[in-house]
Amino acid sequence: MDILIKGKPLGFPLRQNELMELMRKPRGFCVSIYMPTHRAGRAIQQDSIRLKNLLGEAEERLIAGGLRHPDVRDVLEPARNLLEDSFFWQHQSDGLAVFLSSEALRYYRLPLDFEELVVVSGRFHVKPLLPLLSDDGRFYVLALSQHEIRLLQGTHYSVSEVNLEEVPEGLAEVLKWNDAEKRLQFHTTTRTPGGERVDPAIGGVRPAVFHGHGVASADDPKDYISRYFHRVDEGLSEVLGGERAPLVLAGVDYLLPIYREVNAYPRLLDEGIEGNPEELSAKELHRRAWTIVQPLFLAEREEAAAAYRHLAGTGSERASEDLEEIVPAAHSGRVEVLFVALGVQKWGAFDPETHMASLHERADPEADDLLDLAAIHTFLNGGTVYAVEPDQVPGGGALAAVLRY
Description:
Elements: E1 4-7, H1 16-23, E2 30-36, H2 44-64, H3 69-80, H4 86-89, E3 95-100, E4 104-110, E5 117-121, E6 139-144, E7 149-154, E8 159-162, H5 171-175, E9 184-187, E10 190-191, E11 197-198, E12 209-212, H6 220-240, E13 247-251, H7 256-262, E14 273-274, H8 282-313, E15 319-320, H9 323-331, E16 335-341, E17 347-351, E18 356-359, E19 368-369, H10 370-380, E20 384-388, E21 399-403
Parallel strand pairs: 1-4, 6-13, 13-14, 16-20
Antiparallel strand pairs: 2-3, 2-5, 3-4, 6-7, 7-8, 9-12, 10-11, 15-21, 16-21, 17-18, 17-19
Helix pairs in contact: 2-3, 6-7, 9-10
């Protein structure tokens, strides 16, 4: 039996349209597997063994759900083919998410350190992906220089480089000069304690200078840089289309305002990382960017939690911890803000025709995680989702919602 096999290229951000694909209910049982992985070292040899064990667990659950052995083999075989793929295991991020059905295998190598989890149900379980899709704790760093452009996707705990196929590799690629000697050069300077610029080559105080060999006028260099950054911004729009996570710029100080003039990304932050990013590792850029975005995340989350506590304290019907009320509300677009606990499942069923949700006493292959449904429908309907540790959900339950009406 031929099924679709679709792997997320390492370093590409997860997009909302892919989440919608995962939300589409395929025929038969769905298997969702999450596991931590390693980028390098001897530990990568254990990652394939970990997946093998998790696939064995999924097989037991599928058989217990009534699926025949040949059908179980057809569902799991595409993932089992990855077990001996050494190239696949040598190119991992911090976590691996695998989704299997009779129709498709999809896998995502992502900068999240997942806990091991196997879910067999009527749809894919996607709540562990939400930290990469929600506004809380996910950000980007755009490192600008004349020689290269790097885009990093970060969370609180991890960072990975995003593939930028649509972005020019350097200034020369945009200018397309025929003469290899006609390269734009930047003459950088340093600051004195008083804020003046000092040319390190000659020791005098002077402004930053742009040298362009073979350039018609002194004003051309900034125009060239602006053209370069226009191309960068166009390519970035292809990669980050529909994204809402904050973006931090990194680069020498005279480049940052030029890029800001051409930027079209709506959540570019005012504060950036100054300095030559070519000299900074991804880990160091992540560390500096986190000091910029963390206060923003904390303030937004606390403001949302305070709004919930205020509504709940006044007895407002706009605050709810009732799962059987929140799931239908999320499906119909009524949830404005949702706090939902990671690592917790509440099994049940939801009928979109009657808008009724009901809890089950235990997990079974026909059940859905209602926390998962509430989170995904809130996100897809434009609400804000905070996927947090259980002790960070206001009210002390597994979820808490602020309703729009």
